[in-house]
Task: inverse folding
């Protein structure tokens, strides 16, 4: 779930964006106040939202959905920032104009000037210039080469940018086959905190490291334009524009292309539940010109008040036809323009008009999570739209709603973000209770699901505290000399946690550098929520630390075994994950697997029920045991674990 941001809604009064491609086709037909204009002129067929290039790029059609406005003009470099009046459509919802004498090889900036008082960005911008934040983008590293100069003295606020003959990207991989959902292992990362230069170029250069780990998908935290630069990206304002803080559109495409060449899918975290105050869609229909003001009753996209207790920004009303049209255009754009392989939808539970209250407490959280048929209907529609464009596209929902509701989504092929950080932390720290260390939530059957590969389960994500930080700060030290707070001991327990997590069938997720035991708090540097989204340090030396390299090696082996052996996708399993000694048994015609681990901080002797007698191979140590009686007695030291199989598994 997204973290709470300081509301920055007044940061930017005007948000003006830019397009370097022709617009998304189609015209919005719903929402907002409409006034029939019998003398109006409709948008020419084929000219979609934003800008459309015509006449071999020598003319541009601007098209803005703005029902209820009295006048709209376009201003920009092409008319020396003097208003060019736009025509109103017959239904009164759209404003458009054709501008001629465009040089296809020149970059142009522009804004819309509404009702003679408000300048805003194009909501369909593909690139923006932001005078408040752009100066920091190329300092100290050149992140976005040849960034156009802001038109200082011509206007104020963010401006849009387009160029007809902008550099294009030639894709090298056009027939990428996505990993099967049952084998999906996702590596979640924030570009800013994964590579020192926070660039797509350095991220691309780091792919050999990620590929060596063996994951087959990378999930990027939001990359579309967001307020400011130093951010997790959940404070969105322009949904069609790539945020320049990480690099150019072509650099992002090159990264995706390089991932595909390595067999790695790219999943994009996206926020379509809300936007922040600098969004032109908020500003066009705000209650006042004050940049901190929120949406008015006439806003065709947004609620005036949020509907649930975890709301930040301004909530989109997904029951409005205009919002659904906009949302589907956003979905389509990134899928087709950037060849991404899936979305992780942040705050998917917030796509509702059922008001559960805005004060967070047990009652409001329960009301929000209750089965919501309107939400099911909406996500059924959106999922069908995306799968209609691309049947194998991944759809992951951060939902956390009633199991019956999540099961409905699973039955449609969607995946559920599944947070097991609390029991996972308790298990690696060595505490059985308060709260429970039962990690049975790794398995789908406990939720009443019939679809076995619908849980994207994790012990760490961007929202949760780091396992190794918890081990070092709060680990169980009650029985020295075995102390979980000792770094080598804590890292060994992280290995054990990984062995169990990856052994459970279905998709799994790893947070960046968890494979090295990243141990700086999520709340660094102040150890308060105020630092939750702050820049975090990177430790290159961790890659050479022997104990951390050993943890990396266990991650690598477990990931490879999970992907390369059918037994790890079986639906024939048993597990016991609530006690001191935890076990998972997987049965498949190709192999049988028995995972056992002592999560306590003292030695335990346990009877492990193997499915058959004979030789069992320890796939992590390279040794083997002979099981003469399937009820096999084992004495396990604290933190000792094994991944046994009756045949040697592929790694």
Result:
């Amino acid at each position: 779930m997204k973290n709470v941001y300081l509301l920055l809604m007044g940061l930017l009064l005007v948000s003006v964006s830019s397009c370097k491609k022709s617009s998304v086709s189609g015209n919005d037909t719903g929402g907002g106040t409409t006034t029939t204009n019998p003398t109006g002129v409709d948008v020419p067929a084929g000219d979609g939202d934003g800008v459309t290039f015509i006449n071999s790029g020598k003319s541009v059609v601007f098209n803005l959905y703005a029902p209820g406005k009295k006048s709209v003009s376009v201003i920009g470099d092409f008319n020396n920032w003097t208003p060019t009046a736009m025509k109103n459509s017959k239904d009164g919802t759209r404003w458009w104009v054709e501008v001629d004498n465009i040089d296809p090889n020149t970059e142009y900036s522009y804004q819309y000037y509404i009702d003679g008082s408000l300048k805003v960005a194009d909501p369909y911008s593909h690139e923006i210039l932001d005078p408040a934040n752009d100066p920091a983008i190329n300092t100290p590293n050149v992140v976005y080469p040849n960034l156009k100069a802001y038109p200082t003295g011509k206007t104020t606020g963010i401006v849009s940018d387009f160029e007809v003959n902008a550099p294009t990207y030639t894709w090298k991989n056009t027939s990428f086959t996505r990993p099967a959902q049952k084998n999906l292992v996702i590596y979640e990362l924030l570009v800013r905190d994964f590579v020192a230069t926070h660039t797509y170029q350095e991220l691309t250069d780091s792919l050999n490291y990620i590929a060596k780990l063996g994951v087959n998908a990378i999930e990027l935290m939001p990359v579309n334009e967001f307020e400011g630069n130093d951010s997790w990206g959940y404070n969105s304002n322009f949904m069609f524009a790539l945020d320049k803080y990480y690099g150019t559109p072509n650099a992002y495409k090159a990264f995706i292309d390089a991932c595909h060449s390595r067999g790695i899918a790219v999943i994009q975290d996206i926020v379509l539940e809300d936007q922040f105050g600098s969004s032109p869609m908020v500003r066009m229909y705000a209650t006042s010109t004050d940049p901190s003001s929120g949406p008015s009753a006439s806003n065709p996209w947004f609620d005036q008040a949020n509907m649930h207790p975890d709301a930040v920004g301004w909530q989109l009303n997904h029951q409005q036809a205009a919002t659904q049209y906009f949302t589907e255009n956003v979905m389509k754009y990134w899928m087709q323009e950037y060849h991404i392989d899936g979305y992780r939808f942040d705050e998917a539970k917030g796509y509702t008009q059922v008001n559960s209250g805005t004060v967070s407490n047990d009652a409001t959280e329960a009301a929000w999570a209750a089965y919501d048929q309107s939400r099911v209907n909406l996500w059924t529609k959106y999922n069908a739209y995306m799968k209609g464009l691309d049947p194998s596209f991944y759809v992951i929902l951060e939902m956390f709603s009633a199991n019956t509701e999540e099961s409905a989504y699973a039955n449609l092929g969607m995946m559920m973000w599944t947070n097991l950080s609390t029991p996972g932390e308790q298990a690696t720290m060595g505490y059985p209770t308060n709260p429970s260390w039962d990690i049975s939530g790794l398995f789908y059957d406990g939720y009443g699901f019939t679809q076995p590969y619908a849980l994207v389960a994790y012990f760490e994500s961007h929202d949760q505290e780091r396992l190794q930080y918890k081990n070092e700060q709060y680990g169980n030290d009650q029985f020295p000399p075995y102390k979980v707070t000792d770094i080598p001991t804590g890292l060994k327990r992280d290995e054990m946690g990984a062995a169990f997590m990856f052994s459970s069938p279905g998709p799994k997720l790893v947070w960046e550098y968890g494979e090295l035991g990243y141990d700086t708090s999520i709340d660094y540097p102040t150890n308060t929520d105020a630092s939750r989204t702050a820049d975090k340090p990177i430790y290159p030396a961790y890659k050479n630390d022997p104990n951390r390299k050993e943890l990396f090696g266990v991650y690598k082996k477990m990931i490879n075994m999970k992907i390369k052996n059918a037994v790890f996708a079986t639906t024939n399993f048993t597990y016991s994950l609530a006690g001191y000694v935890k076990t998972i048994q997987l049965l498949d015609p190709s192999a049988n697997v028995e995972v056992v681990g002592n999560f306590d901080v003292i030695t335990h002797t346990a009877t492990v029920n193997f499915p058959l007698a004979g030789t069992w191979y320890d796939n992590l140590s390279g040794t083997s045991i002979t099981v003469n009686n399937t009820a096999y007695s084992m004495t396990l030291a604290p933190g000792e674990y094994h991944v046994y199989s009756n045949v040697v598994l592929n790694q």
About this structure: The first strand starts at residue 50 and ends at 54. The chain has 13 helices and 30 strands. Confidence is low (pLDDT under 50) at residues 1-33. The first helix runs from residue 191 to 194.
